[in-house]
């Protein structure tokens, strides 16, 4: 059957089905004469399984591992139950906090210290509330190149215009190593080894510098 028929049978959109195919969760047979995908009842069954797992908020990555035999359904569901339970406990703590504040006569002028102490005491007893660490926002801010200029590790590379330009050239050259691999294949084995080792060392040092920069950035943010 065609993808439109598979979509009707499962209730999924065509784009959803194509997304699952790209992620390796589905592999319908292609018809030799038309090159169209031919969805079998086994594919429909697989799609229904995916839907059920996604309804339990199981990640696409976990479903992929199950499909490839790298994880069992039981183990995935046990881990998912633990994660959902922890999330539910966190949400329940936040809901109860909302309700308590709404009971106040003047919620706009509550004693913030009182409620912060309440949260601290509850967390000490094992209760959970929403996390305050704004890691995603920090990552977004850190990713801006302007942050590097004030960083004690990476910033020194950008303190001088000519150094910054030179570093950009080096990055561009390293990026070209991949498309130039066909040319490198024609060189001697010794030359190839030197180029490969040099590229690896460069990127390891660059990642190390970024890690140090990130640690310093987070320390300054606090």
How would you portray this structure in words?
The chain has 222 residues and is mostly helical. It is 68% helix and 2% strand. It contains 12 helices and 2 strands; from the N terminus they run ααββαααααααααα. Strands 1-2 form a two-stranded antiparallel sheet. The termini are far apart.
**Estimated radius of gyration:** 27 Å
Number of helices: 12
Encode the helix/strand succession as letters. Answer: HHEEHHHHHHHHHH
Biggest pleated-sheet summary: 2 strands, antiparallel
* End-to-end Cα distance: 57 Å
What labels describe this entry?
about 0% strand; mainly alpha; about 70% helix; about 220 residues; 12 helices; 2 strands; two-stranded antiparallel sheet
Quick summary of this structure?
The chain is an all-alpha fold and 222 residues long. The protein has helices spanning 3-10, 14-22, 41-55, 60-67, 73-102, 112-124, 135-142, 146-149, 155-158, 161-175, 181-184, 189-221, and strands at 29-30, 37-38.
Layout: helices, strands, pairs:
Elements: H1 3-10, H2 14-22, E1 29-30, E2 37-38, H3 41-55, H4 60-67, H5 73-102, H6 112-124, H7 135-142, H8 146-149, H9 155-158, H10 161-175, H11 181-184, H12 189-221
Antiparallel strand pairs: 1-2
């Amino acid at each position: 059957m065609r993808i439109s028929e598979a979509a009707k049978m499962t209730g999924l959109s065509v784009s959803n089905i194509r997304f699952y195919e790209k992620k390796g969760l589905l592999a319908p047979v292609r018809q030799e004469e038309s090159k169209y995908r031919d969805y079998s009842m086994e594919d429909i069954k697989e799609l229904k399984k995916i839907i059920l797992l996604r309804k339990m908020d199981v990640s696409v990555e976990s479903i992929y591992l199950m499909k490839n035999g790298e994880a069992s359904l039981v183990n995935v569901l046990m881990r998912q139950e633990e994660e959902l339970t922890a999330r539910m406990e966190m949400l329940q703590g936040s809901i109860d906090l909302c309700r308590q504040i709404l009971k106040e006569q003047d919620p706009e002028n509550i004693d913030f210290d009182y409620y912060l102490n309440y949260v601290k005491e509850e967390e000490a007893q094992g209760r959970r509330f929403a996390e305050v660490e704004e890691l995603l926002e920090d990552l977004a801010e850190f990713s801006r190149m302007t942050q590097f200029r004030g960083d004690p590790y990476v910033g020194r590379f950008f303190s001088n215009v000519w150094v910054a330009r030179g570093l950009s050239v080096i990055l561009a050259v390293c990026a070209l190593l991949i498309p130039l691999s066909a040319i490198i294949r024609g060189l001697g084995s010794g030359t190839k080894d030197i180029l490969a080792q040099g590229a690896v060392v460069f990127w390891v040092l660059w990642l190390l510098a970024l890690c140090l920069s990130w640690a310093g950035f987070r320390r300054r943010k606090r």
